Amino acid sequence: MSAPFVGGRCLGKRAPKHDPRTYRLGRVLAVRLPAVSAERDWSQNVPYQMWGNDRFGCCAFAAHAALVATWTKAAQSLVMLSTETVLDNYAALTGFDPATGANDDGTILLDELNAWRRDGLLRPGQTRDYLTAYGSIAPTDVVGIRRAIAYLGGVLAGVQVPQGFLDLGLGETWDWDTISNHTPAGGHAIALVGYNPDGVFFNTWGTRTFMPWSTFTRIADEAYGLLSRENWLGIPGTAPTGEDFDALLAEVRAA
């Protein structure tokens, strides 16, 4: 599942789990936030790290670390998880052993999200990191993805990576039309943290990277908008965009 590839890069997203109870976030964002800016990028100057994903298939938890860093840099004061913390979070959910590398079998994103919301994940300091709420967004719903990035600060997405992208240098654009080897290499979790009219910025393997929307909608097989009271709210009690978090959360919970 998580064998290393060129440059020491690992994959580790398991097949999507579909639960009919999962809230569909795209529609409430469309009602509450009909207008969305042409571009928004929260990823500028965020010091993303590899977080162990060069050795292990911990991409889902590296994406968690990237989202926490992105949110807190924009809304509060930068919080960076250590590689040890990321691997401990991976271990707690999956049975992975950081000391030996045993049980490095990857993660089901829905399992990660439920554990993050219910039990919390490790983070620096005395408190655990609890996700307030989440909901699915169809990967083909580009406007919904843009809304979630613009107003909620990021999206957790799962993609099926073609081998040609693993042959690129870190940070090179992922463009389906510019590679020749489209053989599927495996599933990968990424944090979507910005966008413009042409595509989406995301963190993978410690590097801010870009892919066109046409590539994203082709390779993505799941996406989730995330509401994080702990990380996304600044001192005034609103997200950096000024969107009222409690009002949006109430609507999500009432639906």
Q: Which helices and strands, and how do they pair?
A:
Layout: H1 25-32, E1 40-41, H2 59-75, H3 83-94, H4 109-118, E2 133-136, H5 142-152, E3 155-162, H6 163-166, E4 184-196, E5 199-204, E6 207-212, H7 213-219, E7 220-227, H8 229-232, H9 245-254
Antiparallel strand pairs: 1-4, 2-7, 3-4, 3-7, 4-5, 5-6
Short description:
The chain is of the alpha+beta class and 255 residues long.
List keywords for this structure.
alpha+beta; 255 residues
Q: Helix share of residues?
A: 25-40%
> Low-confidence parts, pLDDT < 50 over ≥5 residues?
none
Q: In what range is the share of β-strand residues?
A: 15-25%
CA(first)-CA(last) distance: 37 Å
State the shape.
Answer: globular
Number of contiguous helices? 9
In sequence order, what are the helices and strands, one letter per element?
A: HEHHHEHEHEEEHEHH
Strand count, sense and barrel status of the largest sheet are:
7 strands, antiparallel
Would you give an account of this structure?
The chain has 255 residues and is of the alpha+beta class. The chain is 33% helix and 18% strand. The protein has nine helices and seven strands; from the N terminus they run H-E-H-H-H-E-H-E-H-E-E-E-H-E-H-H. Strands 1, 2, 3, 4, 5, 6 and 7 form a seven-stranded antiparallel beta sheet that branches. Helix 1 crosses helix 5. The longest helix has 17 residues. It is globular and about 45 Å long. The protein starts with 24 loop residues before the first helix and ends with a helix. The model has no long low-confidence stretch (mean pLDDT 93).
